[in-house]
Amino acid sequence: MYGIDFGTSNTVVTTQDGTAATSRLLQLGGSPIIPSLLYFEKDQLPSIGFAAMDAYSDALQRHHGKLALEKSFRFFQAVKLALKDPNFTGTRIFGQFWPAESLAGLFLKEVKRQADQETGRNESAVVLGRPVVLGATAEEDSRIQNRFRKAAEFADFSDIHFVMEPVGALVSAAVPEGNTLIFDFGGGTLDISLAAAAPGNLRILANDGIDLGGYIINEQLSRQRIISHFGFYGKFRTMTGRWLDMPKWITDQVASFYALPLAELAKTRSAIKDLIPEARPADKPKLKGLLEFLDRNLSFSLFNTIDEAKIQLSDSNSASISFQVEPYIQIAESIERAWFDHMLTPPLQAAEVLITRVLNTAGVPAESVSHVVRVGGSSRIPAFITLLERLFPGRVNEGDVFTSIASGLLEAHRLGLSM
Fold it and tell me: Going from the N-terminus, what domains does the chain have, and what CATH number goes with each?
């Protein structure tokens, strides 16, 4: 049996050997952490992870960054979010329609193939991590979990179980006695588990989660500082001579990092081409740059640049975002930590509301929480560490940021904590 933390940003796989009680991280592609990336190119087998990233970079160089997205290659990031979006059914790749479940399933199928190669087994059983909340209602939650199940079935798993992601992290943390809160802040969601531990007994008191993660923060950063370079806030002249605001659905696509590669872009390209002649002179090169951005499939490149700046702000008081779409757009934005922390005010408030809700559900006051464990890449953002330290002074520690969920999935299933 495999334990798979199918994450928005990264995926981690574990197994248990023989009668061993502890899980072992599998080294797939030379690393236990696989970026959740999927690359298609005509007449080639799809690739995932670092191999997909390398193939994407190579394609940009081979084609000198000048090619139509859907005609030569497709590059997908955060494929998990396609499953979570109830309105997304699928996308066309080289003329063939791929349902969301099959697209994510293809990623998991390659993960399974590499895991089987590493273990020497043809494994049919899997425990998948899942966010605490997948849908707004119990019915929708069940429907979306079934999409994850279909993706796992596409990957040739037949014995499929689910464990809430923060519960996996809780089990792997081997928490001491007392009340422990897991603050699992990853790429797509913020999930919290609160448990009471006593010798030989682990009791889950409350679980909850919200759609808040690194992708949302990166998209917000793009909306605040980047999309204006692509024509957001621009104007265009109508046939009657009136000046109207640039359609926001067009320019906002620069911030939709996971959704943009999934979209059918012909409508967007056509709209941009129609707008360019009617745009203000200052906005014309921005729209031409947006068209080039789409044609060159640069969504991941921009996302990566923004993500690196965000990470740099964890250790520095400032970071820069430098990005070009030659010859039209040159971006050089300096991001100050103080400005970034202010931008995070709504997410910080949402996180505090969630923590309070979990404590109230469990009937446990903050001062009765003995231990807080931070996991997930976004949990390293200083503003959120400060929030936790304010609520739980002196009791906050960092766990295994990227591997803790996967490391606890199989043991959580053995303890009867699967769904």
Answer: 2-173+401-414 (3.30.420.40), 177-398 (3.30.420.40)
